[in-house]
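[Discussion] Sanity-checking designs against the backbone

I'm trying to build intuition for which residues belong where. Below is a structure token string of 153 positions. I'd appreciate it if someone posts a full sequence so I can compare it with mine line by line.
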């Protein structure tokens, strides 16, 4: 009777192992994901995915990090470029900011509004400056949260 019990336990363990192997192997053979989509379980930011640069229009953007957090200008640059904006410069701002500010440099307030919406909402200011070859300047503030980057183990 003991032998039958042990055989039953071994049979259950083998079946469980086979099912576990099959589930693990199915997860390993998945098709590669699109790098622009967040990883499963990643927190979504309230940045609208549909806000893009208009087709056929080149909006030149300067992105400046006004925080102590390193790399925010680079992350904002990648996000804006994915949405069709032409980020021509990224760097650090001279002063620290609490909230993100989008500055219209070329007299196109609708372009500044598009960039502000793509950044998840920001204050907009108009300061025309024809000496800069820019349309919009983005000064990133402390309250801006970058979109989640996908995790590829």
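Best answer:
Here's mine. Compare freely.
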């Amino acid at each position: 009777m003991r032998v039958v019990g042990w055989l039953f336990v071994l049979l259950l363990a083998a079946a469980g192992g086979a099912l576990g192997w099959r589930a693990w192997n199915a997860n390993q053979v998945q098709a590669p994901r699109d790098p622009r989509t967040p990883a499963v379980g990643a927190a979504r930011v309230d940045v609208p995915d549909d806000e893009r640069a208009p087709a056929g229009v080149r909006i030149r953007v300067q992105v400046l990090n006004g925080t102590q957090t390193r790399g925010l200008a680079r992350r904002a640059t990648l996000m804006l470029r994915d949405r069709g904006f032409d980020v021509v410069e990224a760097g650090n701002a001279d002063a620290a900011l609490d909230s993100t500010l989008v500055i219209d440099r070329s007299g196109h307030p609708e372009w500044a509004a598009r960039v502000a919406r793509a950044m998840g909402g920001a204050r907009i200011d108009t300061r025309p400056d024809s000496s800069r070859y820019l349309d919009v300047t983005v000064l990133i503030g402390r309250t801006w949260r970058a979109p989640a980057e996908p995790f590829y183990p």
